[in-house]
Each structure stands twice: as structure tokens, then as C-alpha cells.
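Side project, low priority. Logging it here so it doesn't get lost.
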Amino acid sequence: MKAMLGLTIGWRFYRARQANGFIGFISMASTVGIALGVAVLIVLLSAMNGFEQALEDKFLAVVPQAELVGAETPIANWRQMMTEASQISGIAASAPFVRIQGLIQKQGGFQGVDLAGIDTQYEAEVSAIKHYMSAATWQALSVDTNHIVLGHSLLERLGLKVGDSVSLYIPNQDGQGLAKARSLRFVVAGSFNFGGEIEQNLGYIPMAYAQQVMNLGDSVSGVRIRTHDVFAAPALIRQLGYQQTQYLYLSDWTRTQGHLYQDIQLVRMLMYLVLALVIAVACFNIVSTLVMAVRDKTSEIAILMTMGCYRWQIMSIFMVQGLMSGVMGTVIGGVAGIILALNLSDLASGIESLLGMKLLDSDIYFIDSLPSQLQWSDVNLVVCLALVMSFIATLYPAWRASKVLPASALNG
């Protein structure tokens, strides 16, 4: 019953405070500030989760998660290496490839391109690139001919279309160790439409033809793997590499593309800090509101004390009064943030249609829409942060209220 006294009187004081125009305005400002901070923080964290998921599901589905590349000589025992990879828990699949780096001549100069000679039977297990090209184009890569598949953006830049011939210039060592340019002729069999930088400097050719033109016999440049957990790729590729006797280069996505993930985490952390400060500033309004409320209710506090209220009950009255603003702001902001986060992609599409512009250009980014993935752990964390800050904001004013001297207050 004594505990309920603080809750009851605190609620009455809160309602009475709204009748005081100035104090009510500051109270409303604190509630709105907390709600805004909570809602925006939930939405932005959901957007960062969406970017992270898109990185894992789309980008890392095409970019090699990890690979082994022959350091001094090509890999001849790649079939045995793939068998060993299949025996390691955590590795989902593996595939051989032949890498060719060269220059494609275009109007006004040359364009660097990184060709991957692939076996479509194995490549489909480790990469989702087949889903970004037509079935006929993918089928063309399974034939041992000089077919080449380039990114759609690169084809447009080169002014090429399906059926055109293109020359690739690669370095070729002569017998005296001098590097000379060697020309390879390819026929454009199609294109893939993935977006981003990959589409502008990556191409695919049949692995058998790549082995033939590079005089590799049955050897390959390397073996790439796909893992069940992309974050386990660095450890798994090392486990596989340490089982080999040949000198190999070990590489994983955290080295080649890890900056994208780090950028997402950095932006997430900065946004969290900034918006946490926004919530903290809004909570300072609770302090101001309660300080004025304590001064306004000094005589009521003195009367309650003379009637037998303990100091902790006086504290609880004003803590409840201050927490009401924090709880209301948190609930309103949480509900609004959840609704916005669940519909963020549709809202972004509507804004794009309204403004006639793209927020994310597929020629620059690997996605063309604003992703969002709501995680309840983020919602719980933001809500707890706002409530804890609101609670802390009530402590000092409530403590000051408990220190009111009844005699002085009533005589004044």
C-alpha cells in the first residue's frame, strides 16, 4: 500500500503538471524528443541490419568468400583439394577457377578486366552469379569455346553487344624473361546484371578454354569455397590451406571486401552514439521539468511529510512523475520506429517515385533499393536505453524533493 502511494500521487502530480502551461510544454518537449530519438534509432539500426544482410546474401554470394591460389605454380591436385574441403565441417561447397587479368581495348584507351574461367557445374555450388544472367548465357559458359560474359555496365561502356568480338591483352613472358603483350580473342555470349563495381571489371569464360589458352593442362589457378557462416570463412580457409603441401596464397572476403562490412559497423556505431545523445538531451528536459515541479509543489511535499510520508515515498512520487514522460516517449517512439522499419523499403520506393530519383544507384552500389531488417534485440536495447536514461534523469530532482524541510516550506 505504501508503494502504491507514490504511484498514485505521482500520477496525479503528472496530470496536474499538464495543466501548468509552461511546465506542460517542457514535459511535452521531453516526451517528443525521446520518441523521436527512439524511433529514428530503431529505423536506422534496421537499415544497417538490412545493408549487412544484403552484403551477406547478395554481395558475398557472388564475391569469393575465400579462396586458395597457387603461389608459384598452378594447382594440379584441385580435385583432391575439393575432396578435403568437403570433409571440413563448415565448408558448404568448393569450385576450381582459372584467373586471367588483362586489358580490353576501348575507344580512347584500355579497360582493365579480371576474367574468371569457371566450370558451371561446380560454380553454381559456390556462387549465385547464374541468377544474374540468362539461362542461355549461363549455358554458353559450359561450352569449351571462346565465349565471354561481361558485366552489363562494362558492355555499355565498351559499346559492345552479344555476338561482337573483343580482344583481351595479357602479359606473356618470352624465353628471355621479357614481358610482351599477348592477344586473346573472345566472342561476347551475354552479360550479367549485378550492379556496382563488380559489373564493371569482372568477366567469365569457360574454364576448359581458359586452361587451354593459358597452357595449364588440367591445372587451375585456385579453388574457392563457400561456407555456411561467412564470418567463419577466414578460419576455414586456413584450416584447408594448412592441409596442403603446395605453397598457396590464402585469401578471404574480410581482406578483399571487409571494408564494406567495417563501414557498415562504423556507421552503425556512430549513429547509435549520436542518437543516444539525442535521447539523453531529451531526458535532460525531464530534469528541468521535475526541478520546476518540485519548486511548484513544495507546499504539497511539506504537507505530505507532516502527514507521515517517508522521504523514499516523496522520491518515488517524483520519480513516477518523471518516468511518465520517458515511458510515454519510449512507447510512442518504439511503435512508430517499428512501423517505419517494417515499411522502410516501400517508403523509400515511394520517395524515389515522388522525387524522380534513385536513392541507391545500381551502377555504384550492389543494391538498388533501401534494405531494412528489424531485429527485436535492437528494439529491446533502444527501449531499455531510453527507460534507463529517463530513470537516471529523475534521481536528482526526486532526491531534492525528499530534502524539503516541512517547517521552512510551510512558513514560507
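Brief comment: The chain has a mean pLDDT of 80.
Revisit when time allows.
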